[in-house]
Amino acid sequence: MIKATKEFLEQTDALFENRKQEILNTKDEIKITGSAFYVANDGDDSNDGKSIDTPWKTIEKVNEAELSPGDGVFFKRGDIFRGSVKASTGVTYAAYGQGDKPKLY
What we know:
By secondary structure, the chain is of the alpha/beta class. 28% of the residues lie in helices and 17% in strands. The protein is elongated, with a radius of gyration of 19 Å.
């Protein structure tokens, strides 16, 4: 009985881990109708934020931006951001790049 329970738990753990990885590694299929803005730890708030080559650096810059419904703000995967995002109605917030999802603290 104990052996069967142990095997069941191992199988269940494996299934849960597989599902977790599927969720974490699912590609974002975000469609926006306005402008896209990018934020990365190696960015610069004097950039225009309109491409992955010219990202903003901080959440403060995101909060200062005049965003419109249909716009998207994309945070670089693997990066860590500190601050509070003032979400705007109709604006999509998501991740871009490869790796772990960005962390916002």
